[in-house]
Amino acid sequence: MNLFSKGKVVLAAAAAATLVLTGCGGGSGSAGTSNSSATSGEINLIAYAGVWQDQYNAAVIEPFKAKYPDIKINYSSKRSSAEMLSALQGQKNDPATDVAIMDNSVSTTGNTQGLFDKIDESAVPNLANVPEKFQDKNGFGPVVMLDAVGLLYDTATFPKAPESWDVLWDPAYAGRINVNAPPSLLGLSLTAITSKMEGEDYTQSIDKAVAKLKEMAPGVQTFAPNPDEYQNVITGQTVLGLGQNARGQFYSDQSNKKMGVTFPKEGTVYQINTVNLVKDAPNKAAAETFINYALSPEAQTAFAKALFYAPSVTNAELPAEVKDRVVPTDGSLNIVPLDVQFLSSARDKWTDTWKRQIITK
Questions:
Q1: Across the strands, what pairs with 78?
Q2: Quick check: 5 pLDDT over 50?
Q3: Of 4, 1, 15, 193, the residue nearest 109 (C-alpha)
Q4: Cα–Cα distance for residue pair 215/5, rounded to 1 Å
Q5: Hey, CA dihedral for 349, 185, 197, 270, is it positive or negative?
Q6: pLDDT at residue 1, as a whole number
Q7: How far apart are CA 347 and CA 105, in angstroms?
C-alpha cells in the first residue's frame, strides 16, 4: 500500500514538546539560483523544536557537518508542521528555506500549493532505498521517518498498560486527563480513532465521534497541555494523555519509567514525516546533499537510537533493543487509515467543531 495514495493514506501527527525558536538564515542570493555546490555553502532547514531538534541535531546534523565541513546549516525550529507551512507560504515568492521536515498531511498541502520541488534521484541516490509505499506518487519529498500516536499513562496509577482508548472516558480518571485539541494533529487523530470506535466513516461524518468526545470533555483537565503532554503525566498533573510513541519512549527513559506509552487495541494512526526540497531553494545543490544524507542508513539508524523513530529506508539495521521500541511498519500494528487529501480539506472544519462543540470550558 502506498502511504501517499488517495483514499488510504496513513498519518498521525504531533507537535514538538517545547517551543524553541531560532533564527533562520536566508539564502545568500535570489530565489531560484543555487549559491552553493553539493559539498559547500549553506542550508536553511525548517523542522521541529524541542527534544526533536536536540536529538536530530546530535544524531544527524552534527555527523553531516563532520562529513561536509564546508556546508553550514541554519536551523529554524517550529512547534508544529502547521507553523512550518505558514512560514513557507509567507516565503513563496522569495524562498529563504531549502529543506523542510514535516508531517506528511501538511507537506501534501505544500505540494499542491507549489511550495516544494520533486526529488531527483540522480541528485539523491539514497531515494532508491526508500520503498515505494514510502515515496510520493508524484515524486515529491519521501517519508524520512515514521512514528504513531500512543496513549500516555502514569505507571504508578496503571502498573499494567491500559488496553483500550475507553480509559479516557472512565470517570475514575476525570480531571486527570490531557488531550491535545485540534489543530494539533494529535486531536485530529483522536477524532478519526473515535470515529472508527463508533462505527463511523469519518470522511462522511464525524457526528458520532463528536458526541462521544463531548462525553469525554468534562473529564479533561486541559486541551492544551503545558509545558507539554509528556511532562504533565511525568509530574503527576495528569495520569493519561495523548502523545507520540517516539517521544513517549524517550521521556519514559528520562523519567525512570514514570510514564509509559502504549497502542490501544482499537488502533492508532501513523505520524509520518517527509523530507522536502523547497521550490526555488536558494541552495539547492547543498540541500539535495543533505536530503540524501537524511535518507542514509547511518542517519536513519542514529536517529532511531536517539529518539525511537522508525527508519523509512530498507537498509537501516537497528539493534534489537531499539527495534522493539520503534513503531512497527510491517503491518503488525492496528492502523486506522487516514486520507491525507481529505484531512487537508477537513482540518479547519474539524478544528472549528472541536472549539464550538467539544471544548466547553
A1: 48
A2: no
A3: 4
A4: 34
A5: positive
A6: 39
A7: 10
118 is written with which cell numbers?
A: 520533486
- Is residue 250 within 8 Å of residue 237, measured between CB atoms? no
- Name which of 36-40, 167-171, 205-209 the model is least confident about: 36-40
Query: What is the rounded radius of gyration, in angstroms, for the C-alpha atoms of the chain?
Result: 20
Q: Print the SS3 string covering the chain.
A: CCCCCCCCCCCCCCCCCCCCCCCCCCCCCCCCCCCCCCCCEEEEEEEECHHHHHHHHHHHHHHHHHHCCCEEEEEEEECCHHHHHHHHHHCCCCCCCCEEEEEHHHHHHHHHCCCEECCCCCCCHHHHHCCHHHCCCCCCCCEEEEEEEEEEEECCCCCCCCCCHHHHHCHHHCCCEECCCCCCHHHHHHHHHHHHHCCCCCCCCCHHHHHHHHHHHHHEEECCCCCCHHHHHHCCCCCEEEEEHHHHHHHHHHCCCCEEEECCCCCECEEEEEEEEECCCCCHHHHHHHHHHHCCHHHHHHHHHHHCCEECCCCCCCCHHHHCCCCCCCCCCCECCCCHHHHHHHHHHHHHHHHHHHCCC
- Examine the pLDDT at 19 and tell me if it is beyond 80: no
- The three cell numbers of residue 299 are 542517519
> Which residues are CB-neighbours of 58 under 8 A, at least 6 positions away?
306
**From CA 91, how far away is CA 334, in angstroms rounded?**
39
Name the percent of the chain lying above pLDDT 90: 82
Identify whether 183 is preceded by a cis peptide bond (ω within 30 of 0): yes
Which residue has 483537565 as its cell numbers? 221
Give the position of cell 486506522. Answer: 336
Distance separating alpha carbons of residues 250 and 285, to the nearest angstrom: 34
Q: 243 with 230: CB under 8 angstroms? A: yes
CA-nearest of 17, 326, 332 to 148 is: 326
Amino acid, single-letter form, for residue 221: Q
How far apart, in whole angstroms, are the C-alpha atoms of residue 104 and residue 107? Answer: 5
Reply yes or no on whether the pLDDT at 10 is more than 70.
Answer: no
Residue that has been written with the C-alpha cell 562529513 in this structure: 67
